Amino acid sequence: MPELPEVETTKASLEPLLNQTVTKVSIRYPTLRYAIPADLGTLVGFGLVAVRRRAKYLLLDFYHTIDHRHKTVLIHLGMSGSLQQHRDLDARKHDHLLIDFIDDDGVTTTLHYHDPRRFGMILWTHNDDYIGTIDTAERFLSHLGPEPLDDAFDVDYLRRIIHRTDNLRQKAITKPIKSVIMDQAVVVGVGNIYAAESLFLSHIHPLTPAYQIDDDKLEKLVANIKHILAKAIIQGGSSLKDFTVGSGKTGYFQQTLLVYGRDGESCYHCGSLLENTKIGGRASVYCPSCQPLHT
């Protein structure tokens, strides 16, 4: 599944389309997790003025210079979705949506939304044609925690969340720390790959109850989450399974993974065999020597 670095990489790949105008919209297969809006074709004549990311969602802002109307499209890549730009490429089997853009030189580029497994999502989150009838942003974005690379996500914040100091009626969080940092209401975008890598670098066993982790370890964990995600963004994300971006290029971060997907292999730090446990139904690979579980 594309995670935060893959979505951030996709966001950057769309920037060449900024200030270009939509000339054609082709909905080939509308059935995704939710049906693609039938009126998405009303984007014709609008220019793309901004591309934003919130957690694993992309927000594409469009503006019509004559009618002074705004529209915003929310996109989630699901399990296997990708946005790719091509010139003179015919639609492929799993291309659900094609959007043609034209630049100031008259050159047309087609944005392909490609999704073999169809778990993605393309919806309006704002449309001046019917103000007040869209609750997409509230439904999918309002509950999200801070961005992991923002200053708001720091050790003080994570400590408050774990020990519930803002709500003294509730007990400290006892569930595994890996479940906590993968909770999108706590912090967004720390998916399975990056959680496993961050915990390894912090020498924290993924099953450790969150409330048992001291401030020094929490500070290391926050720093390593930021480090791992920033590194993955620079390297274009992890091209596991179906993820591609731009013109079909893949990322390179998966070539540097220390524990994720390496169950039964030797730890690069100590030589011990890496082990795997299930947490919340997800594989969690760790080193029993570098990440001991204290009971």
Automatic annotation (TrEMBL):
Binds 1 zinc ion per subunit. Its cofactor is Zn(2+). It catalyses: 2'-deoxyribonucleotide-(2'-deoxyribose 5'-phosphate)-2'-deoxyribonucleotide-DNA = a 3'-end 2'-deoxyribonucleotide-(2,3-dehydro-2,3-deoxyribose 5'-phosphate)-DNA + a 5'-end 5'-phospho-2'-deoxyribonucleoside-DNA + H(+); Hydrolysis of DNA containing ring-opened 7-methylguanine residues, releasing 2,6-diamino-4-hydroxy-5-(N-methyl)formamidopyrimidine. Residues 258-292 form the FPG-type domain. Its EC number is 3.2.2.23, 4.2.99.18. GO terms for molecular function: 8-oxo-7,8-dihydroguanine DNA N-glycosylase activity; class I DNA-(apurinic or apyrimidinic site) endonuclease activity; damaged DNA binding; zinc ion binding. Signal peptide: none annotated. SUPFAM superfamilies: Glucocorticoid receptor-like (DNA-binding domain), N-terminal domain of MutM-like DNA repair proteins, S13-like H2TH domain. Keywords: DNA damage, DNA repair, DNA-binding, Glycosidase, Hydrolase, Lyase, Metal-binding, Multifunctional enzyme, Zinc, Zinc-finger. SMART domains: Fapy_DNA_glyco, H2TH. The keyword Hydrolase applies. DNA binds at residues 94, 117. It holds the Pfam family H2TH. One of its GO terms (biological process) is base-excision repair. The keyword Zinc applies. NCBIfam families: fpg (TIGR00577), PRK01103.1 (NF002211). Involved in base excision repair of DNA damaged by oxidation or by mutagenic agents. Acts as DNA glycosylase that recognizes and removes damaged bases. Has a preference for oxidized purines, such as 7,8-dihydro-8-oxoguanine (8-oxoG). Has AP (apurinic/apyrimidinic) lyase activity and introduces nicks in the DNA strand. Cleaves the DNA backbone by beta-delta elimination to generate a single-strand break at the site of the removed base with both 3'- and 5'-phosphates. Monomer. This is Formamidopyrimidine-DNA glycosylase. It comes from Moraxella pluranimalium. The gene is mutM.
